[in-house]
Specification:
The protein has six helices and seven strands, in the order E-H-E-E-E-H-E-E-H-E-H-H-H. It is of the alpha/beta class and 197 residues long. It has a single domain, classed as Peptidyl-tRNA hydrolase (Rossmann fold), CATH 3.40.50.
Length: 197
């Protein structure tokens, strides 16, 4: 196992009609990370994959091309193929329980109502991997959750989302260079600023 190699997985649906939807927030963050590292995605096994480096750390960035609820196939495959331990795999996903404009890193735990996370837990047989949760809020009427997560952000929401994506990219870099606790401190504390340029 290469301790300087990290798997960063963005969850979403790869089909074009889902581009820019709330449920594809994970894709947006991982795309931004790849751009920051000058990496380009290629269509590979179960996923679009890009590889880049930063401060001596290797990043394998993955956007599964399976449906959201089969994301675990891609995560399990790429962890094994790249010989990366689960604790060095950060899964980036949307989260209904966090307000728009907020981010939170959790070191492990259940998947809640997120089908992508739940399938990863099922395929790996455990939940011992960190995840970066990106708030999408839950401003929808009862019974309209699917329509909401597959809908697009409003202009007002995008003003909150864009700085969040920048912040998420910094948190992912810190995860690789300074460790999970440092990334959590930065991501989960609004006043914390990075010194990792």
């Amino acid at each position: 196992m290469n301790e300087k190699k990290f798997l960063i997985v963005g969850l979403g649906n790869a089909e074009q009609q889902y581009a820019g939807t709330r449920h594809n927030y994970g894709f947006e963050v991982v795309n931004a990370l790849a751009s920051a590292l000058g990496a380009t995605f290629k269509n590979d096994k179960y996923a679009y994959v890009a590889k880049g480096s930063f401060k001596g750390r290797q990043f394998v960035m993955v956007m599964p091309t399976t449906y959201m609820n089969l994301s675990g196939k891609a995560v399990k495959y790429w962890l094994n193929a790249e010989e990366i331990a689960p604790e060095r795999c950060m899964v980036v996903c949307d989260d209904l329980d966090l307000p728009v404009g907020s981010l939170k890193i959790k070191p492990k735990g259940g998947g809640g109502s997120h089908n992508g996370l739940n399938h990863i837990i099922e395929m790996l047989g455990h939940a011992n991997f960190p995840r970066l949760r990106c708030g999408i809020g839950k401003d929808f009427a009862r019974g309209y959750q699917v329509d909401y997560v597959l809908g697009r952000f409003s202009k007002e929401e995008l003003k909150l989302i864009e700085p969040c994506i920048t912040r998420a990219v910094e948190a992912l870099k810190l995860f690789a260079t300074d460790g999970l606790e440092r990334a959590m401190l930065y991501c989960n504390t609004k006043s914390e600023e990075p010194d990792n340029q």
